[in-house]
Amino acid sequence: GSPRRLLLVSNSTLHGGGYLGHCQQHIQNFLGQKVKRVLFIPYALHDRDAYARTAREKFESLGYGLDSIHESCDPVEAVRKSEAIFIGGGNTFRLLKALYDNRLIHEIRKRVLEDGIPYMGSSAGTNVATISINTTNDMPIVYPPSLQALGLVPFNINPHYLDPDVKSTHMGETREERIRQYHEEPNTPPVLGLREGAMLLVEGDKATLQGVTGARLFLRGKKPTEHKPGTDFSFLLIDSNPPN
What we know:
One of its GO terms (biological process) is proteolysis. This protein has a 7-stranded mixed sheet with strand order 3-2-4-5-1-8-9, sandwiched between helices. The chain has a 4-stranded mixed sheet with strand order 6-7-10-11, with no helix packed on it. The chain has helices spanning about 25-30, 50-60, 75-80, 90-100, 105-115, 125, 175-185; strands spanning about 5-10, 35-40, 65-70, 85, 120, 155-160, 190-195, 200-205, 205-210, 215-220, 225. With about 240 residues, the chain is of the alpha/beta class. The protein is about 25% helix and about 20% strand. The two termini are about 20 Å apart. It is built from 7 helices and 11 strands. The protein has one domain (about 5-235): Class I glutamine amidotransferase (GATase) domain (Rossmann fold, 3-Layer(aba) Sandwich).
């Protein structure tokens, strides 16, 4: 069994609440009392200082110290020494490019999949935890060397999943149509559409849907299915072709 522990959150802020407010109890349950400091990776936003201040304030209010990787002179060493990693939201392409530029893909994978340190992602940080960022909602404002991501789980996630609005006059593709287009390509993995307010907890080889809103699962060649909080998604972790 894998020692991995992941908390993959759809969104950082839920309507009517503050930063990470809707999932703060989940964060405390996830990190527990053993973790004293969290390594924050703010690469998805341009103003890393402001982003780190926001995250630090929140995590300190929950009883955890926070170090931002952008303040470290050696990002690789910061990952090697980290007790837990949190990657926040923003632009997924910008985030993934920075992870490659700083040579962190292999290091984060090793710390999470081999050493078993907790990994928390929100929005873009959830996208990069999966096989690839092919199912992000973000614009490709920069060009990472690959769309392959951390591969901490053998499927993809679509954070902020939106259901079609029957009253809308918008004629563009729905989120469901875009994911179906992705699955028209060969050998594409499952996509879990996480609505805002939903999150996936992965502990070893067990994956459970948490939060308040639910999720929609897309499998290539099949009709999408609806799932409520509490759903066991462990079957998604069984993969015969894990990323290298």
